[in-house]
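Intended use. Records such as the Exosome complex component RRP46 entry shown here are meant for training and evaluating sequence-to-structure methods. They are not intended to support clinical decisions.
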Amino acid sequence: SSPSPGDTSVLAGLYGPAEVKGSKELPDRAALEVLLRPKVGLPGVIEHSREQLLRQTCEAVVLGTLHPRTAITLVLQVLSDAGSLLACCLNAACMGLLDAGLPLSSLFCGVTCALDPNGAIVLDPTTRQEQEARAVLTFAIDSAERKVLMATTKGSCSVEEMQQCLAAAQRAADTIFQFYRDSVRRRYSKS
């Protein structure tokens, strides 16, 4: 199974840790920057708000104290968007950090849930399912304790519905973490 909905794909590139001077320098840890590039055009309000969510999530697991006064830049390029884009960005970000060999306290993954008009939970919704949904929730879930590192909600849902979506997302996360482990194993067995 694929860690993202069939037709959504995001390419991750990681630069650093590089020396940094001036206002971006943090004396006790690495400064992390996340840049989200849309498929076409320039980044707008939506991209910038997602960059913040992605940065917060990455900062929660990157052991940046090992590289103080440096900068790490993660660039996420959207190749195609057929729904559940933020979740796909989260997965690409984690794979990018992992690939770069940065020290991480745990892995994380993104899962998007939509509540359809009947209140049923749809995992990895397509763009159309998102548009028709009463609410769309995206969670970033860590691999150590399955806890939520970041959550964002669009639309309206009850606390109970949110808890049901979270439980479904935590179950889906297990599949994604297994995918990570398998792909890392494949990569190292080739070399």
